[in-house]
Specification:
It is a single chain. The chain is α/β, with parallel strands linked by helices. The protein has eleven helices and nine strands. Helix 5 links the parallel strand 5 and strand 6. The protein binds 1,4-dihydronicotinamide adenine dinucleotide and 3-(4-hydroxy-phenyl)pyruvic acid. The site of 3-(4-hydroxy-phenyl)pyruvic acid has 7 residues, from loops. Keywords: Oxidoreductase. This is Prephenate/arogenate dehydrogenase domain-containing protein. InterPro entries: 6-PGluconate_DH-like_C_sf (IPR008927), NAD(P)-bd_dom_sf (IPR036291), PDH_C (IPR046825), PDH_N (IPR046826), Preph/Arog_dehydrog (IPR050812), Prephen_DH (IPR003099).
Length: about 290
């Protein structure tokens, strides 16, 4: 594929930014990928792993002449980096991101720039893993995964088209929706299960009477709790920036647990069977085995 962009800047060269960078570099979509961060050793490793071509800790150098800036920092750092780059950004530079919640990033952009930039294309790849950091970056991370773009009413169609083209070239399936709908859906399908996994591991860990309980876990526990090994900063920030929707779905889940507890205490075999069977049928129908 021939290059469609000259310079792409990655702000936050970890799993998500690193995988995006490596993918677009290997696909030949860009002449030069520069990484920005605060940790020289991490950025040097990114160069050695072929994730980026070069790095800088100077924001002016990072965004100067850049065609596209990809923000891949924890949600709590999005506003800071937007404010840091603002003085050096050209109005032509496309700004996009990979944050797990979208309304908060849009609000940050609005606050930093005064009005939403035309070249701002908020996004979220629905692909990742419990490992963070550039060492886990993988150019194939996004293949056959969905990427949700949540353009604002100000987003230019031309900017949306460029961002879409990059994700498609990385093998992703791109879908467009509004940010509020995005945040509601992913509170239910992603944020809630991560919190449940953290809570389960934490609860068992604190019940000392169970002794060395993790020694006695089987595959089911492993499957259910893999995501409890995810990064604490990232997940703290997701909760901080999508708390309303997450709290709502946690409460629904709490009600479901209360109802289930009653069925268990009452040994209601018929109701338990129906609940398990309906869940199994729904999962078997909708979740394709990999
Ligand atoms: N890990 C996952 O599975 C997924 C994560 N996301 C989102 O992608 C974003 C990045 O997540 P990961 O790549 O997993 O995290 P990561 O921890 O692997 O990478 C984040 C990078 O940002 C850097 N960073 C933090 N604050 C910074 C600042 N103020 N300025 C410059 N660099 C800074 C860190 O040093 C690190 O290199 C988050 O917003 C997360 O919600 C989205 C989809 C999946
Ligand atoms: O590890 C997993 O299976 C995930 O679900 C990764 C993930 C984490 C956060 C996102 O916003 C999207 C994907």
């Amino acid at each position: 594929m021939s290059a469609i962009l000259n310079k792409v800047t990655i702000i936050g060269v970890g799993l998500i930014g690193g995988s995006f960078a490596k993918g677009i570099k290997q696909a030949g979509l860009v002449e030069e990928v520069i990484g920005f961060g605060h940790n020289d050793a991490n950025l040097q490793l990114a160069v050695e792993l072929g994730v980026i071509d070069s790095f800088t800790t100077d924001m002016a150098e990072a965004v100067d002449g850049s065609d596209l800036v990809f923000l891949a920092v924890p949600l709590g750092a999005m506003k800071t980096v937007l404010a840091e780059m603002k003085p050096y950004l050209s109005s032509k530079t496309i700004i996009t991101d990979g944050g797990s919640a979208k309304s908060s990033v849009i609000l940050s952009a609005q606050e930093v720039f005064g009005e939403l930039p035309e070249n701002f294309v908020p996004g979220h790849p629905i692909a990742g893993k419990e490992k963070s950091g550039v060492a886990a970056a993988d150019e194939a991370l996004y293949v056959n995964h969905r990427v949700i773009l949540t353009p604002t009413e100000k987003t230019a169609l031309s900017a949306l088209a460029v961002v879409k083209q990059l994700w498609l070239a990385l093998g992703a399936n791109v879908e467009v929706m509004n940010a509020q709908q995005h945040d509601e859906i992913f509170a239910a399908t992603s944020h809630l299960p991560h919190l449940l996994a953290f809570a389960l591991v934490d609860m068992l860990n604190e019940h000392e009477e169970l002794g060395d309980v993790f020694k006695y876990t089987a595959g089911g526990f492993r499957d259910f709790t893999r995501i409890a090994s995810s990064d604490a900063v990232m997940w703290r920030d997701i909760v901080m920036y999508n708390s309303t929707a997450i709290a709502k779905w946690l409460k629904y889940y709490g009600q479901a647990i209360t109802e289930l507890t009653e069925l268990v205490e009452n040994k209601d075999a018929q109701a338990l069977y129906t609940l398990f069977d309906e869940a199994k049928k729904a999962r078997d129908k909708h979740i394709v085995q990999k």
